[in-house]
Amino acid sequence: MAGTLKSSRDLAVQQSQRGTEEAPFIKWTLISIALLFCLVFLLLPLINVFAQAFDKGLAYYWESLTNADSWAAIRLTLVVALISVPLNVGFGLAAAWAIAKFEFRGKSLLITLIDLPFSVSPVVAGLMFVVLFGLQGFLVNGSINMTSKLYLPSQALSWRRCSLLSLSWPAS
């Protein structure tokens, strides 16, 4: 009886290993496609960044890196990272603890706000910030700038003629 149970358990273990049932050709083809995908979408852009950075030579790159504006940008990046990372850790731990431990009104809204950066592309978010806060954006010096223009590759459209704003903007 014990031998029967052992053999049926071994049979179940052998049947659960579905990945090993594929033919070696198919297995290696899928692995090759995954590696090719990683090469094209991860490694080639990284190589391109370094190729363009060193395009004018190592001396030009070093001169750009030792520029005062470059060092100011590096310092600003480090200061912002040193401030924002501990704040994100603290607020993230507090939010995770509150979500896991308690039931409260607005819990689903909090979860939605936490998940929002995963669903919105950083490119779209960056474009939104440029359109709102850029030099030609909607919000300039804290007020709506109605004379700014949206520069498109084909033409420049005045915001006063934009139908989106004319529908809801009160006449002055």
Structural notes for this entry:
69% of the residues lie in helices and 6% in strands. It is mainly alpha-helical. The strands form 2 sheets. A two-stranded antiparallel ribbon has the order 1-2. Strands 3-4 form a two-stranded antiparallel sheet. Strand 3 (149-151) and strand 4 form a beta hairpin.
Produce the secondary structure layout.
Layout: H1 2-16, H2 24-53, H3 58-65, H4 68-101, H5 107-119, H6 122-133, E1 139-140, E2 143-144, E3 149-151, E4 156-158, H7 163-168
Antiparallel strand pairs: 1-2, 3-4
Derived structural class = mainly alpha
For the largest sheet, list the strands in their spatial order. Answer: 1-2
Q: Mean pLDDT score, rounded?
A: 77
> Which descriptor suits the 3D outline?
flat
Query: What separation lies between the terminal Cα atoms?
Result: 92 Å
Proportion of beta-strand residues: 5-15%
Low-confidence stretches: 145-172
Largest sheet: 2 strands, antiparallel
As a whole number of angstroms, the C-alpha radius of gyration is 28 Å
Helix content: 55-70%
The number of strands is 4
Helical stretch count? 7
Order of helices and strands: HHHHHHEEEEH
Name the descriptors.
172 residues; mainly alpha; two-stranded antiparallel sheet; 7 helices; flat; disordered C terminus
Provide a short characterization of the protein structure.
69% of the residues lie in helices and 6% in strands.
